[in-house]
Amino acid sequence: MSTETTTAVEKKESLFSKKNRKLLTDPLDDSNPITVQVLGICSALAITVQVQQAVIMSLAVLFVMIGGNVIVSLMRNIIPDRIRIIVQLVVIASLVIIVDEVLKAYSPDISEKLSVFVGLIITNCIIMGRLEAFALGNKPGPAMLDAVGNAMGYAWILLAVALVREVFGSGAISFPGMGQVKFLPDSWFYANGGFYENNNLMILPPMALVTVGVIIWIQRARNRSLIEEN
Amino acid sequence: MEYLSIFVKGIFVENMIFAYFLGMCSYLAVSKTVKTAVGLGFAVIFVLGITVPINYLLENFVLKEGALTWLSPEYATVDLSFLSFIMFIAVIASMVQLVEMIVEKFAPALYGALGIFLPLIAVNCSILGGALFMQERQYPSIGEATVFGLGSGVGWLLAIVAIAAIREKIRYSNIPDPLKGLGITFILTGLMGMAFMAFMGIEI
């Protein structure tokens, strides 16, 4: 009896050991899902026009990733190897349906704006990638940490890109509960006799790519071990 | 005329990569050489051309509200559209598997060319994206849905082959070290996207 409790305590301790803490912090920078692992770009770029959409999308991905990673990790010993992709897709798709229905019920206008991109969380490569690479071979505890870490790594890139695009593209950030946060006085704008004009290019799709490209540039300039050969 | 308009729109105006960023993961991963890019591009056209019409039938005869009336008039109020994600992805995964087996049996040469790419395609966002756009845009007939699928596939092929060709050449250029590889590919795609924006608003 006592040995059982000690192992249980050890397991509990190991959940926040150095190795496990790395699972949380690594994906934020050195193995960021978007800029280093190149996963999940599909849905990441299209919904970064507004900070609000990026926040909702990040929360949705966080929920699906934690759910998916924990469920697949719990089932890892009973999933036959050959049909594991289908099993993973079913788990993810069910979670995404929950997210979609909740969004439709509580904020239909956001759901409208995200349109097909909620559904596309299913094929978001981060989720499949982490399930394949981590959840299938690890216990639920670390799998959850891995999910949180990777979802956060995804979220901060999304937020950074959305912030740049919304500030320069719209001149203000609109967020529910806060109204519009403006950065420049109205009189500075050209329409009111000033000199400043919003850069509408930032709202268009190509600038999302360029912004991510620049983030990658900055990150690799800071951490030169990430530089590719060609 | 309607068909041509949908086809051209799918290639240029509503290009999967440049306008919606769909299928970016494989677009970035498999665009190092033109040869593999062409292989993956044709596999995507093939799978989109098959799965979009199948999902169209599924949507219109099973999932949509009132779609089940062909079974019996009392099902007119049944709305299964909340199941569409799981049904679409199941169709796509099984079709990809099926296509892989058929191609392997009847066209071994094609299988040799496409073989390794086919399994990848099940989780390519552009395929599920094609199905979801088809659902959102409510195409009036299966013919138009098919043309939309093929058009988007051709647009995807065009994008990946173009970027692969540029990446082959850019190897000889002197770009800043931290931008090499992924970074410059992103920026190039952004520039190509700007070029493609010239097609916006074109009506045929």
Write the layout of secondary structure elements.
The complex is a heterodimer of chains A (230) and B (204).
Chain A: H1 2-15, H2 18-25, H3 41-46, H4 51-74, H5 84-106, H6 108-114, H7 116-119, H8 125-133, H9 140-170, E1 172-175, E2 179-182, H10 205-222
Antiparallel strand pairs in A: 1-2
Helix pairs in contact in A: 2-9, 4-5, 4-8, 4-9, 5-6, 9-10
Chain B: H1 2-13, H2 24-29, H3 34-63, H4 84-106, H5 108-114, H6 117-121, H7 125-137, H8 142-170, H9 182-196
Helix pairs in contact in B: 1-8, 3-4, 3-7, 3-8, 4-5, 4-7, 7-8
Q: Specify Rg of chain B, calculated over alpha carbons.
A: 19 Å
Low-pLDDT residue spans of chain A: 1-11
Tally of DSSP β-strands of chain B: 0
Low-confidence stretches of chain B: none
Number of helical segments with 4 or more residues of chain A? 10
- Following the backbone from N to C, one meets helices and strands of chain B in this order, namely HHHHHHHHH
Overall morphology of chain A: globular
- Main pleated sheet of chain A: 2 strands, antiparallel
Which structural class best describes the helix and strand composition of chain A?
mainly alpha
The counted number of beta strands of chain A is 2
Distance between the termini of chain A: 58 Å
Chain oligomer state: heterodimer
> What count of helical segments of chain B does DSSP give?
9
Sheet with the most strands, sense and barrel status of chain B: none
Overall structural class of chain B, as computed from helix and strand content, comes to mainly alpha
Q: What share of the residues of chain A does DSSP label as strand, in percent?
A: under 5%
Radius of gyration of chain A from CA coordinates? 20 Å
**Backbone shape of chain B:** globular
The SSE order of chain A reads HHHHHHHHHEEH
